[in-house]
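Case study.
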Amino acid sequence: MDLYPAIDLLGGRFVRLYQGDYDRETVYGDDPIAQARSFEAAGAPWIHVVDLDAARTGEPVNRDVVASIAAAVSVPVQAGGGVRDEAAADALFSAGVARVVLGTAAIEDPALVRRLAARHPVAVGLDARGREVAVRGWLEGSGADVIDLARAFSDAGVAALVVTEIGRDGTLEGPDLDGLAEVLGATEVPVIASGGVGSLDDLRKLAGLERAGRRLSGVITGRALYEGAFSVTEAVQVCTGARPGGAP
Amino acid sequence: MSRVAEPPARIAVLDYGIGNLRSAEKAFQHLGADATLTADPEVIAAADGVVLPGVGAFGPCREALRRAGLDGPTLEAVASGRPFLGICVGMQLLYDGSEESPGVAGLGVLPGTVRRLPPGVKHPQMQWNRLHQLTESPLLEGLGEDPWVYFVHSYAAEATSDVIATCDYGGPVTAAVQREQVFATQFHPEKSGATGLAVLGNFVRLAAGARSVADRGRS
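After joint prediction, the assembly is written out as follows.
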Protein backbone atom coordinates (compact mmCIF):
# COMPACT_ATOMS: atom_id res chain seq x y z
CA MET A 1 0.00 0.00 0.00
CA ASP A 2 1.50 3.31 -1.14
CA LEU A 3 1.28 6.41 1.05
CA TYR A 4 0.01 9.54 -0.71
CA PRO A 5 0.62 12.60 1.47
CA ALA A 6 -1.95 15.21 0.40
CA ILE A 7 -1.45 18.85 -0.46
CA ASP A 8 -4.80 20.61 -0.91
CA LEU A 9 -4.44 24.00 -2.56
CA LEU A 10 -6.78 26.91 -1.90
CA GLY A 11 -5.72 30.34 -3.09
CA GLY A 12 -2.09 29.21 -3.47
CA ARG A 13 -1.84 28.06 0.16
CA PHE A 14 -2.24 24.49 1.36
CA VAL A 15 -5.12 23.76 3.65
CA ARG A 16 -7.36 21.00 4.96
CA LEU A 17 -11.11 21.28 4.90
CA TYR A 18 -13.33 19.61 7.50
CA GLN A 19 -15.73 17.20 5.77
CA GLY A 20 -15.16 19.12 2.56
CA ASP A 21 -16.65 22.30 4.03
CA TYR A 22 -15.04 25.32 2.36
CA ASP A 23 -15.96 27.44 5.39
CA ARG A 24 -14.05 25.17 7.74
CA GLU A 25 -10.53 25.30 6.37
CA THR A 26 -7.33 25.00 8.35
CA VAL A 27 -4.37 26.71 6.71
CA TYR A 28 -1.16 24.72 7.13
CA GLY A 29 1.22 26.87 5.13
CA ASP A 30 1.91 29.01 2.13
CA ASP A 31 4.83 27.14 0.56
CA PRO A 32 3.31 23.98 -0.95
CA ILE A 33 6.46 23.31 -2.96
CA ALA A 34 8.63 23.14 0.14
CA GLN A 35 5.99 20.91 1.72
CA ALA A 36 6.08 18.54 -1.26
CA ARG A 37 9.88 18.40 -1.08
CA SER A 38 9.75 17.61 2.60
CA PHE A 39 7.24 14.78 2.00
CA GLU A 40 9.56 13.41 -0.68
CA ALA A 41 12.63 13.69 1.54
CA ALA A 42 10.79 11.74 4.25
CA GLY A 43 10.28 8.85 1.83
CA ALA A 44 6.78 9.39 0.42
CA PRO A 45 6.39 7.34 -2.78
CA TRP A 46 3.74 9.71 -4.18
CA ILE A 47 2.46 13.24 -3.64
CA HIS A 48 -1.30 13.81 -3.97
CA VAL A 49 -2.28 17.36 -4.93
CA VAL A 50 -5.81 18.75 -5.09
CA ASP A 51 -6.76 22.13 -6.53
CA LEU A 52 -9.70 22.95 -4.26
CA ASP A 53 -10.48 26.20 -6.08
CA ALA A 54 -10.74 24.31 -9.34
CA ALA A 55 -12.78 21.53 -7.74
CA ARG A 56 -15.43 24.07 -6.82
CA THR A 57 -15.40 26.26 -9.92
CA GLY A 58 -13.57 24.34 -12.65
CA GLU A 59 -11.10 27.26 -12.94
CA PRO A 60 -7.54 25.92 -12.59
CA VAL A 61 -6.26 28.83 -10.51
CA ASN A 62 -3.55 26.75 -8.80
CA ARG A 63 -2.26 25.00 -11.93
CA ASP A 64 1.11 26.79 -11.84
CA VAL A 65 1.58 25.62 -8.27
CA VAL A 66 0.71 22.04 -9.24
CA ALA A 67 3.22 22.25 -12.09
CA SER A 68 5.89 23.64 -9.77
CA ILE A 69 5.32 20.80 -7.33
CA ALA A 70 5.58 18.20 -10.12
CA ALA A 71 8.83 19.77 -11.29
CA ALA A 72 10.26 20.08 -7.79
CA VAL A 73 9.98 16.48 -6.63
CA SER A 74 11.40 13.27 -8.03
CA VAL A 75 8.49 11.08 -7.07
CA PRO A 76 5.28 10.79 -9.10
CA VAL A 77 2.57 13.36 -8.46
CA GLN A 78 -1.14 12.52 -8.59
CA ALA A 79 -3.29 15.60 -9.11
CA GLY A 80 -6.98 16.35 -9.21
CA GLY A 81 -9.59 18.97 -8.58
CA GLY A 82 -11.67 20.55 -11.32
CA VAL A 83 -10.34 18.45 -14.18
CA ARG A 84 -13.50 18.50 -16.28
CA ASP A 85 -12.24 18.15 -19.85
CA GLU A 86 -9.42 16.69 -21.90
CA ALA A 87 -7.65 20.04 -22.18
CA ALA A 88 -7.43 20.41 -18.41
CA ALA A 89 -6.10 16.85 -18.06
CA ASP A 90 -3.59 17.33 -20.89
CA ALA A 91 -2.35 20.55 -19.27
CA LEU A 92 -1.61 18.66 -16.05
CA PHE A 93 0.18 15.83 -17.87
CA SER A 94 2.27 18.36 -19.80
CA ALA A 95 3.16 19.93 -16.47
CA GLY A 96 4.69 16.63 -15.36
CA VAL A 97 1.82 15.19 -13.34
CA ALA A 98 2.02 11.37 -13.42
CA ARG A 99 -1.66 10.59 -12.83
CA VAL A 100 -4.74 12.78 -13.02
CA VAL A 101 -7.82 12.22 -10.87
CA LEU A 102 -11.19 12.88 -12.50
CA GLY A 103 -14.12 13.42 -10.15
CA THR A 104 -17.14 15.36 -11.36
CA ALA A 105 -16.17 14.86 -15.01
CA ALA A 106 -15.96 11.10 -14.55
CA ILE A 107 -19.48 10.94 -13.15
CA GLU A 108 -21.03 13.32 -15.66
CA ASP A 109 -19.08 12.16 -18.73
CA PRO A 110 -17.84 8.55 -18.35
CA ALA A 111 -16.80 8.53 -22.02
CA LEU A 112 -14.21 11.21 -21.19
CA VAL A 113 -12.61 8.80 -18.73
CA ARG A 114 -12.29 6.10 -21.37
CA ARG A 115 -10.83 8.50 -23.93
CA LEU A 116 -8.28 9.89 -21.50
CA ALA A 117 -7.41 6.52 -19.96
CA ALA A 118 -6.48 5.22 -23.40
CA ARG A 119 -3.72 7.86 -23.56
CA HIS A 120 -2.74 8.67 -19.98
CA PRO A 121 -2.75 7.25 -16.45
CA VAL A 122 -6.09 8.37 -15.05
CA ALA A 123 -7.78 7.73 -11.71
CA VAL A 124 -11.45 8.20 -10.92
CA GLY A 125 -12.34 9.92 -7.68
CA LEU A 126 -15.45 8.51 -6.03
CA ASP A 127 -16.23 10.89 -3.19
CA ALA A 128 -19.16 9.53 -1.26
CA ARG A 129 -21.41 10.96 1.38
CA GLY A 130 -22.74 7.70 2.77
CA ARG A 131 -23.23 5.69 -0.42
CA GLU A 132 -24.06 8.63 -2.67
CA VAL A 133 -21.24 10.04 -4.79
CA ALA A 134 -20.90 13.83 -4.58
CA VAL A 135 -19.74 16.20 -7.34
CA ARG A 136 -18.70 19.84 -7.86
CA GLY A 137 -16.33 20.23 -4.94
CA TRP A 138 -18.63 17.96 -2.91
CA LEU A 139 -21.27 20.69 -2.96
CA GLU A 140 -23.79 18.57 -4.86
CA GLY A 141 -24.97 14.96 -4.77
CA SER A 142 -24.98 12.95 -7.99
CA GLY A 143 -27.69 10.49 -7.06
CA ALA A 144 -25.29 7.67 -8.00
CA ASP A 145 -24.25 4.82 -5.71
CA VAL A 146 -20.52 4.45 -5.02
CA ILE A 147 -20.50 0.66 -5.50
CA ASP A 148 -22.44 0.89 -8.77
CA LEU A 149 -19.94 3.44 -10.05
CA ALA A 150 -16.97 1.36 -8.91
CA ARG A 151 -18.38 -1.51 -10.99
CA ALA A 152 -19.15 0.80 -13.91
CA PHE A 153 -15.54 1.97 -14.16
CA SER A 154 -14.09 -1.55 -13.88
CA ASP A 155 -13.44 -1.87 -17.61
CA ALA A 156 -12.72 1.79 -18.36
CA GLY A 157 -8.95 1.30 -18.34
CA VAL A 158 -8.39 3.51 -15.31
CA ALA A 159 -5.27 3.16 -13.16
CA ALA A 160 -7.08 3.51 -9.84
CA LEU A 161 -10.23 4.47 -7.99
CA VAL A 162 -9.71 7.06 -5.26
CA VAL A 163 -12.47 6.42 -2.74
CA THR A 164 -13.18 9.17 -0.24
CA GLU A 165 -15.73 9.08 2.55
CA ILE A 166 -16.63 12.76 2.81
CA GLY A 167 -18.14 12.39 6.27
CA ARG A 168 -14.75 11.30 7.59
CA ASP A 169 -12.47 13.55 5.54
CA GLY A 170 -10.43 15.89 7.67
CA THR A 171 -11.91 14.43 10.87
CA LEU A 172 -9.14 12.01 11.98
CA GLU A 173 -12.00 9.72 13.11
CA GLY A 174 -10.78 6.64 11.26
CA PRO A 175 -11.52 5.37 7.76
CA ASP A 176 -14.71 3.62 6.65
CA LEU A 177 -13.28 0.09 6.54
CA ASP A 178 -16.58 -1.63 5.69
CA GLY A 179 -17.30 0.71 2.80
CA LEU A 180 -13.76 0.32 1.44
CA ALA A 181 -13.96 -3.46 1.69
CA GLU A 182 -17.16 -3.35 -0.30
CA VAL A 183 -15.49 -1.32 -3.06
CA LEU A 184 -12.53 -3.74 -3.10
CA GLY A 185 -14.97 -6.58 -3.64
CA ALA A 186 -16.83 -4.77 -6.42
CA THR A 187 -13.94 -4.10 -8.82
CA GLU A 188 -10.51 -5.29 -9.87
CA VAL A 189 -9.21 -1.76 -10.36
CA PRO A 190 -6.62 -0.70 -7.73
CA VAL A 191 -8.32 1.20 -4.90
CA ILE A 192 -6.81 4.15 -3.04
CA ALA A 193 -8.50 5.05 0.25
CA SER A 194 -8.95 8.59 1.44
CA GLY A 195 -10.61 10.20 4.38
CA GLY A 196 -10.51 9.93 8.14
CA VAL A 197 -7.01 8.54 8.74
CA GLY A 198 -6.02 9.77 12.19
CA SER A 199 -3.44 7.37 13.54
CA LEU A 200 -0.84 4.76 12.63
CA ASP A 201 -3.36 2.21 13.83
CA ASP A 202 -5.80 3.40 11.15
CA LEU A 203 -3.05 2.86 8.58
CA ARG A 204 -2.40 -0.64 9.95
CA LYS A 205 -6.09 -1.48 9.59
CA LEU A 206 -6.11 -0.18 6.02
CA ALA A 207 -2.93 -2.09 5.15
CA GLY A 208 -4.51 -5.26 6.55
CA LEU A 209 -7.87 -4.77 4.85
CA GLU A 210 -8.62 -7.60 2.42
CA ARG A 211 -11.64 -8.55 0.36
CA ALA A 212 -11.79 -11.23 -2.33
CA GLY A 213 -8.01 -11.59 -2.11
CA ARG A 214 -7.54 -7.89 -2.87
CA ARG A 215 -5.91 -5.18 -0.80
CA LEU A 216 -5.82 -1.41 -1.01
CA SER A 217 -3.18 -0.05 -3.37
CA GLY A 218 -2.79 3.26 -1.57
CA VAL A 219 -3.93 5.63 1.14
CA ILE A 220 -4.16 9.42 1.08
CA THR A 221 -3.49 11.27 4.31
CA GLY A 222 -3.50 14.96 5.02
CA ARG A 223 -4.53 16.36 8.37
CA ALA A 224 -2.95 13.56 10.41
CA LEU A 225 0.46 14.38 8.90
CA TYR A 226 0.05 18.14 9.31
CA GLU A 227 -1.08 17.82 12.90
CA GLY A 228 1.75 15.46 13.80
CA ALA A 229 -0.30 12.32 14.55
CA PHE A 230 2.52 10.48 12.76
CA SER A 231 5.38 11.27 10.40
CA VAL A 232 5.62 10.35 6.73
CA THR A 233 8.52 8.05 7.57
CA GLU A 234 6.50 6.18 10.21
CA ALA A 235 3.49 6.01 7.91
CA VAL A 236 5.51 4.61 4.99
CA GLN A 237 6.90 1.92 7.26
CA VAL A 238 3.45 0.89 8.41
CA CYS A 239 2.07 0.97 4.87
CA THR A 240 4.64 -1.27 3.27
CA GLY A 241 7.34 -2.51 5.57
CA ALA A 242 9.93 -0.15 4.12
CA ARG A 243 9.37 1.39 0.73
CA PRO A 244 10.43 3.18 -1.30
CA GLY A 245 13.15 5.80 -1.06
CA GLY A 246 15.16 3.13 0.68
CA ALA A 247 18.44 4.17 -0.89
CA PRO A 248 21.33 4.60 1.55
CA MET B 1 43.08 20.65 2.93
CA SER B 2 41.38 22.24 0.03
CA ARG B 3 41.30 21.54 -3.65
CA VAL B 4 39.94 23.34 -6.61
CA ALA B 5 36.32 22.34 -7.12
CA GLU B 6 35.81 20.63 -10.45
CA PRO B 7 33.24 22.22 -12.72
CA PRO B 8 29.99 20.24 -12.71
CA ALA B 9 29.52 17.54 -15.32
CA ARG B 10 27.73 18.82 -18.40
CA ILE B 11 24.66 16.69 -19.13
CA ALA B 12 22.70 17.17 -22.35
CA VAL B 13 19.09 16.01 -22.06
CA LEU B 14 17.83 15.53 -25.61
CA ASP B 15 14.80 17.72 -26.34
CA TYR B 16 12.61 16.41 -29.13
CA GLY B 17 9.37 18.05 -28.18
CA ILE B 18 7.46 15.15 -26.69
CA GLY B 19 5.78 15.07 -23.29
CA ASN B 20 7.35 16.57 -20.27
CA LEU B 21 11.13 16.23 -20.36
CA ARG B 22 11.76 18.91 -17.76
CA SER B 23 11.63 16.51 -14.83
CA ALA B 24 14.79 14.72 -16.01
CA GLU B 25 16.59 18.03 -16.52
CA LYS B 26 15.48 19.26 -13.08
CA ALA B 27 16.59 16.06 -11.38
CA PHE B 28 20.09 16.40 -12.85
CA GLN B 29 20.28 20.05 -11.82
CA HIS B 30 19.17 19.04 -8.33
CA LEU B 31 22.21 16.74 -8.27
CA GLY B 32 24.50 19.65 -9.08
CA ALA B 33 25.08 18.76 -12.72
CA ASP B 34 25.14 21.40 -15.45
CA ALA B 35 22.10 19.93 -17.23
CA THR B 36 20.49 21.43 -20.32
CA LEU B 37 17.42 20.37 -22.25
CA THR B 38 18.66 20.80 -25.80
CA ALA B 39 18.38 19.84 -29.47
CA ASP B 40 21.54 21.74 -30.41
CA PRO B 41 24.11 19.35 -31.97
CA GLU B 42 27.02 21.49 -30.70
CA VAL B 43 25.77 21.43 -27.10
CA ILE B 44 25.23 17.68 -27.38
CA ALA B 45 28.71 17.15 -28.83
CA ALA B 46 30.27 19.16 -25.99
CA ALA B 47 28.40 17.37 -23.20
CA ASP B 48 30.12 14.92 -20.84
CA GLY B 49 27.02 12.73 -20.77
CA VAL B 50 23.93 12.52 -22.96
CA VAL B 51 20.43 11.51 -21.84
CA LEU B 52 17.58 10.38 -24.08
CA PRO B 53 14.32 10.53 -22.14
CA GLY B 54 10.98 9.51 -23.60
CA VAL B 55 7.32 9.20 -22.85
CA GLY B 56 4.41 7.86 -24.89
CA ALA B 57 4.51 5.38 -27.74
CA PHE B 58 7.53 4.05 -29.62
CA GLY B 59 6.53 5.11 -33.15
CA PRO B 60 5.65 8.75 -32.43
CA CYS B 61 8.77 9.17 -30.25
CA ARG B 62 10.97 7.69 -32.96
CA GLU B 63 9.46 10.06 -35.53
CA ALA B 64 9.78 13.07 -33.20
CA LEU B 65 13.47 12.31 -32.61
CA ARG B 66 14.11 12.12 -36.35
CA ARG B 67 12.18 15.33 -37.02
CA ALA B 68 14.13 17.15 -34.34
CA GLY B 69 17.26 16.25 -36.32
CA LEU B 70 18.59 14.24 -33.38
CA ASP B 71 19.25 10.83 -34.98
CA GLY B 72 22.77 11.88 -36.03
CA PRO B 73 23.77 13.61 -32.77
CA THR B 74 22.37 10.68 -30.77
CA LEU B 75 24.33 8.07 -32.72
CA GLU B 76 27.46 10.23 -32.61
CA ALA B 77 27.15 10.60 -28.83
CA VAL B 78 26.90 6.82 -28.49
CA ALA B 79 29.82 6.24 -30.87
CA SER B 80 32.01 8.74 -28.98
CA GLY B 81 32.05 6.43 -25.96
CA ARG B 82 30.79 9.15 -23.62
CA PRO B 83 28.27 7.88 -21.05
CA PHE B 84 24.79 7.73 -22.56
CA LEU B 85 21.53 7.13 -20.68
CA GLY B 86 18.17 6.16 -22.19
CA ILE B 87 15.08 6.45 -19.99
CA CYS B 88 11.77 4.59 -20.52
CA VAL B 89 10.75 5.05 -24.19
CA GLY B 90 14.18 6.69 -24.63
CA MET B 91 15.62 3.30 -23.68
CA GLN B 92 13.30 1.48 -26.06
CA LEU B 93 14.33 3.72 -28.99
CA LEU B 94 17.89 2.36 -28.64
CA TYR B 95 16.74 -1.12 -29.75
CA ASP B 96 16.18 -2.49 -33.27
CA GLY B 97 12.41 -2.04 -33.03
CA SER B 98 9.29 -2.52 -30.93
CA GLU B 99 6.17 -4.66 -31.11
CA GLU B 100 4.31 -1.46 -30.29
CA SER B 101 5.10 0.05 -33.70
CA PRO B 102 5.78 -2.71 -36.24
CA GLY B 103 7.81 -1.56 -39.22
CA VAL B 104 9.37 1.39 -37.37
CA ALA B 105 13.14 0.92 -37.09
CA GLY B 106 14.74 1.84 -33.79
CA LEU B 107 18.22 3.35 -33.47
CA GLY B 108 19.82 -0.10 -33.41
CA VAL B 109 22.32 0.86 -30.70
CA LEU B 110 21.29 -2.13 -28.57
CA PRO B 111 20.56 -5.46 -30.25
CA GLY B 112 17.09 -6.85 -29.64
CA THR B 113 13.41 -6.01 -29.82
CA VAL B 114 11.06 -4.29 -27.40
CA ARG B 115 8.15 -6.61 -26.60
CA ARG B 116 4.72 -6.30 -24.99
CA LEU B 117 4.62 -7.09 -21.27
CA PRO B 118 3.53 -10.66 -20.51
CA PRO B 119 -0.20 -11.48 -20.60
CA GLY B 120 -2.11 -11.96 -17.39
CA VAL B 121 -0.87 -8.76 -15.75
CA LYS B 122 -2.39 -5.30 -15.97
CA HIS B 123 -1.08 -3.08 -18.78
CA PRO B 124 0.54 -0.67 -18.32
CA GLN B 125 2.65 -1.54 -15.32
CA MET B 126 2.27 1.73 -13.44
CA GLN B 127 3.66 1.31 -9.98
CA TRP B 128 6.64 1.16 -7.70
CA ASN B 129 8.36 -2.19 -8.10
CA ARG B 130 11.56 -3.79 -6.83
CA LEU B 131 14.71 -3.86 -8.88
CA HIS B 132 16.60 -7.16 -8.98
CA GLN B 133 20.20 -6.55 -9.94
CA LEU B 134 21.67 -9.35 -12.09
CA THR B 135 25.21 -8.07 -12.53
CA GLU B 136 27.28 -5.28 -11.10
CA SER B 137 27.07 -2.01 -12.98
CA PRO B 138 28.38 1.44 -12.07
CA LEU B 139 24.89 2.79 -12.84
CA LEU B 140 23.33 0.80 -10.00
CA GLU B 141 26.12 1.13 -7.48
CA GLY B 142 25.19 1.71 -3.85
CA LEU B 143 21.44 1.25 -4.20
CA GLY B 144 21.02 -1.36 -1.52
CA GLU B 145 19.16 -4.62 -1.91
CA ASP B 146 16.17 -4.80 -4.27
CA PRO B 147 15.41 -1.07 -4.16
CA TRP B 148 11.99 0.33 -5.17
CA VAL B 149 11.71 2.25 -8.42
CA TYR B 150 8.79 3.69 -10.39
CA PHE B 151 7.59 2.19 -13.69
CA VAL B 152 5.05 3.31 -16.32
CA HIS B 153 5.14 1.09 -19.42
CA SER B 154 3.37 -1.57 -21.46
CA TYR B 155 6.47 -2.72 -23.39
CA ALA B 156 9.97 -3.73 -22.34
CA ALA B 157 13.17 -4.89 -24.02
CA GLU B 158 13.57 -8.63 -24.48
CA ALA B 159 16.12 -10.40 -22.31
CA THR B 160 19.62 -10.05 -23.80
CA SER B 161 23.14 -10.20 -22.39
CA ASP B 162 22.95 -6.40 -21.83
CA VAL B 163 20.39 -6.72 -19.01
CA ILE B 164 21.77 -5.64 -15.63
CA ALA B 165 18.50 -5.57 -13.66
CA THR B 166 14.94 -6.86 -13.91
CA CYS B 167 11.69 -6.38 -12.06
CA ASP B 168 9.07 -9.06 -11.53
CA TYR B 169 5.83 -8.36 -13.43
CA GLY B 170 4.24 -11.53 -14.71
CA GLY B 171 7.80 -12.87 -14.94
CA PRO B 172 11.17 -11.15 -15.14
CA VAL B 173 10.94 -7.86 -17.07
CA THR B 174 13.98 -5.93 -18.32
CA ALA B 175 14.41 -2.91 -16.05
CA ALA B 176 17.97 -1.70 -16.77
CA VAL B 177 20.70 -2.47 -19.28
CA GLN B 178 24.31 -1.58 -19.94
CA ARG B 179 26.41 -2.10 -23.07
CA GLU B 180 29.81 -0.49 -22.68
CA GLN B 181 29.02 3.19 -21.96
CA VAL B 182 25.39 2.97 -23.05
CA PHE B 183 23.09 2.70 -20.03
CA ALA B 184 19.32 2.60 -20.01
CA THR B 185 16.47 2.19 -17.55
CA GLN B 186 12.89 1.16 -18.24
CA PHE B 187 11.90 2.71 -14.92
CA HIS B 188 11.85 6.47 -14.39
CA PRO B 189 14.83 7.39 -12.18
CA GLU B 190 13.62 11.01 -12.17
CA LYS B 191 10.40 9.81 -10.48
CA SER B 192 11.94 7.16 -8.23
CA GLY B 193 12.75 9.27 -5.19
CA ALA B 194 16.06 8.77 -3.41
CA THR B 195 16.86 5.56 -5.30
CA GLY B 196 16.29 7.27 -8.64
CA LEU B 197 18.44 10.23 -7.68
CA ALA B 198 21.19 7.79 -6.68
CA VAL B 199 21.01 6.23 -10.18
CA LEU B 200 21.18 9.65 -11.84
CA GLY B 201 24.00 10.62 -9.46
CA ASN B 202 25.95 7.54 -10.57
CA PHE B 203 25.45 8.62 -14.19
CA VAL B 204 26.69 12.15 -13.42
CA ARG B 205 29.81 10.67 -11.82
CA LEU B 206 30.38 8.47 -14.88
CA ALA B 207 30.04 11.54 -17.10
CA ALA B 208 32.45 13.56 -14.93
CA GLY B 209 34.91 10.66 -15.02
CA ALA B 210 34.69 10.44 -18.80
CA ARG B 211 35.47 14.15 -19.04
CA SER B 212 38.59 13.94 -16.90
CA VAL B 213 39.86 11.12 -19.13
CA ALA B 214 39.14 13.25 -22.22
CA ASP B 215 40.82 16.31 -20.63
CA ARG B 216 43.93 14.29 -19.79
CA GLY B 217 43.96 13.10 -23.39
CA ARG B 218 43.92 16.69 -24.60
CA SER B 219 46.71 17.99 -22.38
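Observations recorded in class. Chain B touches chain A at residues 19-20, 22-23, 26-27, 30, 124, 126-128, 142-144, 147-150, 152, 188, 190-198 (CB under 8 Å). DSSP finds six helices and 13 strands in chain B. We will return to this complex in the next lecture.
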